[in-house]
Amino acid sequence: MIGSKALSPSLGVEFTGVSDPLDDAFVTRAAEALKWRGVLLVRGLHLDDEQQLAFSRRLGEVVSLRGREIFPISLDPAVNRTAEYLKGAFYWHLDGTTDDVPVKATTLTARHVAAVGGGTEFASTYAAYENLPRKDRERYERLRVVHSFEAAQRLVKPDPTESELAGWRTQPTHEMSLIWRRRDGRRSLVTGATADHIVGMGPGESRALLDELLDWTTRERFRYAHDWSVGDLVIWDNTGILHRALPYEENSERLLHRTTVVGDEAFA
């Protein structure tokens, strides 16, 4: 029998007793929990690539990343040619903030884990918004933020070369509301490493407010930290859950396999 329990008071569900992840009853429960709890965990499921893809397709259309439906998360350039850019994943972020429509969900399965570190943390932007004092909700209501790839990469390389900077700036920027008014009536905060500046605000004041907001959103009360074991499956709602990798050695064999489910709701 499939059981479930909360991963933390603010977010997350762990499912137990899952023998067939493609069972209609489980898929229905998983989709509902993903919407309302943001992060799902099934320990020791040991899905192979085809099983992971089949499950992901029950959640929506799977998009290829650099030509791969199964994308390897590794800091080893021999495994992932874009490993250098993955260092940006050590900072809190949502995926797709420079797109009109962000990805809906991400699945990860653990193939190898780091000997030390290498966990993944999640923070609910729904819970962070819902617990804001009223004065802060009113303060943020009309603010708009520009997101950029450059902002995230500057956290990794504060002093880029001219060539690196030019490369970052080939990527589009995206302006959006700080508060995302969702079509189901809920609201969440759009923040993280790609948040470059607040429109119409001076650089210093803008940076201070964005840092304050990120600090609020990632407080322990809104977080869950997952310590990976081989075979774990984790799925999260990318539209409402900030995430980041915890530090681990670059020569670690840590390897996660990722699928990405296409989004269907534009930032607004």
UniProtKB/TrEMBL annotation:
<dbReference type="InterPro" id="IPR051178">
    <property type="entry name" value="TfdA_dioxygenase"/>
</dbReference>
<dbReference type="InterPro" id="IPR003819">
    <property type="entry name" value="TauD/TfdA-like"/>
</dbReference>
<dbReference type="InterPro" id="IPR042098">
    <property type="entry name" value="TauD-like_sf"/>
</dbReference>
<keyword id="KW-0479">Metal-binding</keyword>
<feature type="domain" description="TauD/TfdA-like">
    <location>
        <begin position="7"/>
        <end position="260"/>
    </location>
</feature>
<comment type="similarity">
    <text>Belongs to the TfdA dioxygenase family.</text>
</comment>
<keyword id="KW-0223">Dioxygenase</keyword>
<keyword id="KW-0560">Oxidoreductase</keyword>
<keyword id="KW-0408">Iron</keyword>
<dbReference type="GO" id="GO:0051213">
    <property type="term" value="F:dioxygenase activity"/>
</dbReference>
<dbReference type="GO" id="GO:0046872">
    <property type="term" value="F:metal ion binding"/>
</dbReference>
<dbReference type="Pfam" id="PF02668">
    <property type="entry name" value="TauD"/>
</dbReference>
<protein>
    <submittedName>
        <fullName>Taurine catabolism dioxygenase TauD</fullName>
    </submittedName>
</protein>
